[in-house]
Design brief:
Helix content: under 10%
Structural class: mainly beta
Oligomer: single chain
Shape: globular
Order of helices and strands: EEHEEEEEEEHE
Number of strands: 10
Radius of gyration: 13 Å
Strand order of the largest sheet: 7-4-9-3-2-1-10
Number of helices: 2
Strand content: over 45%
Largest sheet: 7 strands, antiparallel
Distance between the termini: 9 Å
């Protein structure tokens, strides 16, 4: 589990249990009022599948609203910013292809890692 400022990322599949670097899969929870000031890049494709809540998903300056059952996609060269647009946290399944985002979140973005309870 990776945590920072109320964001909880439960890593379901990564190199430690997949045995390869093909992809990472996580369940992410973004708290109410979450919103990033600026965009960021990923070293991999990022795919969000919204489970609950409403998420603002701005890709290359174009804003999308994602609701349960919808998908948002970000390519490695894209700039993305996320925000919670509901009165409840956003819970989503996120897939990164190829793997490596969990290490990047810890090493570059300061997330704290702990074992899954």
């Amino acid at each position: 589990v990776l945590e920072k400022n109320g964001v909880i990322i439960k890593m379901l599949v990564d190199a430690s249990n997949l045995g390869g670097m093909e992809l990472d899969i996580a369940e992410i929870t973004l708290p109410v009022a979450y919103g990033q000031g600026g965009g960021h890049h990923h070293g991999s494709m990022e795919i969000f599948y919204i489970l609950s809540g409403t998420m603002g998903h701005t890709v290359n300056g174009v804003r999308h609203i994602l609701t349960p059952g919808t998908i948002g996609i970000v390519r490695p060269e894209d700039t993305v910013a996320h925000s919670v647009e509901s009165d409840e946290p956003v819970k989503a399944l996120v897939i990164w292809v190829p793997a490596g985002e969990s290490d990047r979140l810890v090493n570059e973005f300061g997330y704290q890692a702990r074992p899954i309870d």
